[in-house]
Specification:
DNA-binding; single chain; mainly alpha
DNA sequence: CACCAGGGTGGTT
DNA sequence: AACCACCATGGT
């Protein structure tokens, strides 16, 4: 039985604090969460910088801007047609809900449900927004975490995302810890080889990341 | 050249 | 329920 708790401390000791999420306010986190889908952060950050340069990175502005214009602005992030449309819908949602302040007053369960009703916000993005925009103790289950867990123990192969969320949250409860946990999972996921399990050493032994092994298995 | 990046949606079997 | 194509730019 591997301890998620020990894995987290190993990552933190090896990689250090990741400083997520790089944003000035909750709405910027929401926008970034949509822009970064299947996209490198550097590309998403370019789109965010262009929004900021035009001073339209707010729900009020984005709800009113022409979608074709928004497309040209967020173009560096890729998938710019769907993303412009989703940003427009997101802004309308936030305005309709009375702003991020009103949303922030909702309990996490209700807020998650509302977020999932927005076009382009699925489970992973909803939990990322809960965690990084609203500082709720949400577990973000992404492809990196799934792969890492499967490589550590075969039992994770058949475990659903919902089960992963609950199992992780029993070990890591605070928003601050879960904040680092997801960011570190991404950092570690990028470091280890991405080839199939054939490697057999990924994530828990030294052949992928020197020094992590002894920390993770201690 | 192929492959990937801090996913989600809609359609098909 | 499991799979699939699609969205599209920028970096290795």
């Amino acid at each position: 039985m591997t301890s998620i708790d020990r894995l987290f401390r190993s990552w933190l000791r090896y990689y250090g604090p990741q400083g997520w999420w790089p944003a000035d306010d909750p709405f910027e986190v929401m926008v970034g969460a949509l822009l970064v889908q299947r996209t490198s952060w550097s590309n998403a950050a370019q789109a965010i910088a262009r929004l900021k340069a035009r001073r339209i990175l707010s729900s009020e502005c984005l709800a009113g801007i022409a979608e074709v214009e928004l497309q040209s602005i967020v173009e560096p992030a890729g998938f710019y047609r769907v993303k412009a449309h989703r940003l427009t819908r997101l802004a309308g949602f936030v305005e309709n809900e009375g702003g991020v302040g009103t949303l922030g007053a909702l309990p996490s369960g209700a807020l998650r449900q509302k977020l999932l009703s927005v076009d382009g916000i699925g489970p992973e993005t909803a939990d990322a927004i809960l965690l990084y925009a609203f500082e709720r103790p949400a577990v973000v289950v992404d492809a990196y975490l799934r792969r890492i867990l499967v490589r550590m123990h075969e039992r994770w192969q058949a475990v659903t995302d919902d089960q992963i969320r609950r199992e992780v949250s029993t070990r890591l409860d605070s928003a601050d810890v879960l904040n680092e946990f997801h960011a570190l999972a991404v950092a570690h996921g990028k470091s280890v080889c991405r080839s199939e399990p054939s490697c057999g050493n990924c994530c828990i032994r030294a052949s992928c990341v020197t020094g992590l092994a002894t920390a993770a298995t201690r």
